[in-house]
Amino acid sequence: MAVLKPFKGLRPPKEIVRDLASRPYDVLNSNEARTEAEGNPYSLLHIIKPEIDLPADLDEHDDQVYNKALSNFADFRKKGWLAMDNEDHLYIYAQTMNGKTQYGLVGCAGVEDYLNGIIKKHELTRKDKEEDRMKHVRVTNANMEPVFFTYPSVAAIDEIVKGVVTSQEADYDFTADDGFGHHFWVIRDKTTIEKLVDLFSKVPYTYVADGHHRTAAAALVGNEKKQANPNHTGDEEYNFFLAVHFPSDQLTIIDYNRLVKDLNGMTAAEFMQKLAGVFHIEEKGSEIYKPEVLHNFSMYLEGKWYSLTAKEGTYNDNDPIGVLDVTVLSQLVLDQILDIKDLRTSKRVDFVGGIRGLGELKRRVDSGEMAAAFALYPVSLQQLIDIADSGNIMPPKTTWFEPKLRSGLVVHSLE
Known about the structure:
Number of domains: 2
Low-confidence stretches: none
Shape: globular
């Protein structure tokens, strides 16, 4: 059963929370982070993307970068921009997008739960990205950013959360530049905290929705600290890491699309001929076309949009992996036609979250940077859970959750 642990959060003063809260480290590259944090000394990007405060030509994995994260973190604490709560709390973090609000329960998840499979994952992690976040956790001795978890909805938990948010003024409440609302409550009542911890202890499994690398890094560093401590008890803060847990019936997954840099030596006409062997193709013209059903794809090539519908027999709806459109596209197009074998390492393919819109796909193809783009119908949350429960792994870059968690509303210290 799953662990939900209260903790003493490090939090910003209300007056600067909007300026301090940032998008997650992996949503921005270094140049974008520099631009976003420019003129804003409060931005958490100074800690989670500390290369922005160092020369632009410095490797972002240089030791100086991680040391800068530590010094900036210490500076934030010294200035009172991140101050620790006096007692252990749970927290509620709600997000509003397009008029819909989802409510997450913020508390620490257990390192042992991750190692023992109580926390289930659906994506493979890359060792280089894992090690980057592990270094960041080791140096700062903190989980600077929460991971995004989901769990099978529990009515009694929902009722308690509803009671808190309707009876108590939010500690933070702001709208970010992207128009998404962020609302945050501190649960201070000990009886309420105990009830939530007890109810959560009956949840059989939780699922990593977003943040596989941060989850792995936090758990592996926690395990390292356990192995290095001869007096380990299991109660130390390093046995736990920061997570926001959303009930499964409140979340929506949006599309995660693909761009390819070349057509594997083929002309556009030759490529279309190959596609016709496995898809029913319909030209849609210059207006953006978005797929609306499973196994239907949108393709943008040489200034035109096309509908591609996979032919019967080219996919397996009885296989939890085979039914996914990312699998269908990967096998039928990227692998068999374009000879792109490994999506995790290939430099010939790129990925764009649907939040950017299909216009972004068109722009990058029209610019000549990319040869073709493919838009996919999004995976359902039930598909994600079914795959995680079956022990299978989704292809890379399958799910895109929106809105993203803002980092900096609360930080978990491992000290």
